[in-house]
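Repro:
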Amino acid sequence: MEYLYDLLAAVAVIANGIPVAMFALSLGFALKPAALAYLIGAIGAGSLGLVAPISMQGETIALAGALGKDRQERLAIVILGGLIMLPLGLLGLLQATIDFIGPTIFYSMLAGVGLFLGKVGLIDMGTKDKRIGFSTIFSAVAIFILTGDLIYTILGSVAVGMIATIKHPFVSALDSIDEGVSAKEFDSIKHIPITFKSIRVIRGGLALACLTIGGNIAYGTITGQIANMGANVDHLTIVSALADITSAWFGGPPVESIISATGIAPHPVFAGILMMAMFAVIMYSGILMKLAKYIPVGAIAGFYFVLGALVVFPPNIQSALADDANPVVVGMTMAVTATVDPFVGMVAGYVTKILFALAGQP
């Protein structure tokens, strides 16, 4: 029975990832090469015992898409970002970063991620189709309060979102694909020639690395918290960097750390490996395009809202404010994290802490 629950957790995360995959396709990233990235993730998680899996992450895909003018530049940005992150993970610098900034800024950053996720669920996704979005939010909150279980929450709320589409037109994940982008054109695994000569690529690679530093620290830690296990963010960084380089080399999207519902499974490491292995099959086989027709974009709004507002934010803001922490440092870190990204949030919090120290205040 416990392994069935692991399977449900894996399926829940896959349902959450389908709209993100469609978003990646809309920016010219091929889907089949992502199967290689998921295989690297599954092997890495099994070898290193990683509780935090990797999957396609909307933030890194959007950043690469915004900073690269075409497909070649976007792929180069992802590869450069991976090449920057790989030595950071090998040298253990992400855990060193956590130790350096201290618990107040670290937990404030995690609380800021909670605010960001709650906003994404309530506003960004919930308002795309209010009938679907708010029905999933209300059902997700009710299910989580009654069960306290994230897996039941995501599966139940997605089901409610799909039921809300009966006899009503809705925006599916496929509808986010830009006109003129052919799915078949990118449905292959082959090396795409790229160049690193453009200043946009260099800037984009550095920006993507900064975002990934914050994301791996935040998302890996939060999944570890959900699982009540420690998350080795340096090992996670090594695996995600190798996955990014391999995927983008053959035309695929970045595959990074995510906040994963597999953390609540009885065997979180196994559930994460199962999710990545299943996603690899789905990516390579082309099943994804068929599944996407039935999942509305707003169906995952409830999960994001519950995850951010009820799971991530409360315990981390409590930890951030412990031991007479400076509320201005906490507030600055949270606000910048929620509006920019976790890495910039940590930097803003640390600079604020230094300014108070120079002024002779704690």
